[in-house]
Amino acid sequence: MSSTSRTSATPRPVRLGLRENWLQFTLLVIVNACVGGLVGLERTTVPLIGTEVFGVTSDLAVFSFIIAFGLTKAFTNLAAGALTARFRRKQLLMAGWLIGVPVPFALAWAPGWGWIVAANVLLGINQGLTWSMTVNMKIDLVGPARRGLATGLNEAAGYVSVGGTALLTGYLATGYGLRPAPELIGVLFVAAGLALSVVVRDTAAHVALELAQHPTPPPGGRGAGLGQTFARTSWRDRSLRGACQAGLVNNLNDGLTWGVFPLLFTDHGLGLAAVGLIKGLYPLLWGFGQIYTGHLADRVGRKPLIVTGMLVQAAGFVLALALLDHPLLAGILSAVALGIGTAMVYPALIASVSDHAHPSWRANALGTYRFWRDIGYAAGALVAGVLADTLGLNATVVAAAVLTAASGLLAARWLTDRSGR
């Protein structure tokens, strides 16, 4: 009996790979779908809540909720990498969900615009911790050979949920008003995400195994600190610098369209359902596309997808203005181009950063990259607010097209491939 007891208590051997860890990987995919669903609550309705419910007249003031979200999420991403040295990934994942509990209730019943902005501070912390941990844990599980596919599946789950929720909230707002019905579906995302996070196993043993198998030891025999990794990822390493600037501009586009597109297309006569379609289609294509593009990044390399994807996004902004006399067509074609372009870029950038970072400081490198990437939300909202207030919404879209094309050219100059294919 004692022999049987000892045998049953023997832990399973730790192995790297998607097939070997499919159950935990699948649970994390579902968790990240809940993460995306919570932020998807805001994509269609919140800019219109600012103008129509609270009477906010300045575009910059309307976009302040995105600035609050972007800054908070960016700094939480940075902190999340450092926190993995003190806490297990699972603990940080659960902490992120607990912080997100008040968000749907605040969005549904906030008595003033300041409450919406405050809710987005909590949402930024929630997203920074939960999304950072799901992507780190998936990369831990699969090992170096399948990073592109792992990040593609992670981001696909999140952004398909963002898009589906944006679409759903648009239709709910048409039938039941801007509040509270569209926002309360977020309660389901929080409850499911927290419950599943309790079940997920931590991946510390997988990180230890990859460290043991890695061909080169960490610099100095140990992992680099946050300050050293921040400097290396932000500017000292040419490829990591190229990834950071592309990530920043990519999310600048998302932040800009988050605030600008609902106002632009309602100004041209579209209703909430049509705006919800446009705002949903963009992240849906972004999400579903990453299932393929993540796999493709493992086969052809990261750089071709990143450069081409940024140029496709720039074309999406051009389409939005070129066809504005037919606003629904303009919105749909723009959303298609932006969604496909972002799907090409997103998993390839995360995989590229992982390729250039040693496992001992990879969490900090990813945190630094995600810091700069999500600063783009705040930068996009700030640029959009200032330009929209001074030059108009159309000029804001033109500026985004020029900046995105320039970022693609910088990526072509700075990035190098070091994938495990």
UniProtKB/TrEMBL annotation:
Keyword annotations of the record:
Cell membrane, Membrane, Transmembrane, Transmembrane helix, Transport
Q: Which SUPFAM superfamilies match?
A: MFS general substrate transporter
Q: Mind telling me which InterPro entries this protein's record contains? A: MFS (IPR011701), MFS_dom (IPR020846), MFS_trans_sf (IPR036259), MFS_Transporters (IPR050171)
For this UniProt entry, which segments traverse the membrane?
21-41, 61-80, 92-109, 156-178, 184-200, 305-324, 330-350, 371-388, 394-415
Q: Name one Pfam family in it.
A: MFS_1
Topology within the bilayer? Multi-pass membrane protein
Q: Which residues form the Major facilitator superfamily (MFS) profile domain?
A: 239-421
Q: Where in the cell is it found?
A: Cell membrane
Question: Protein name, please?
Answer: MFS transporter
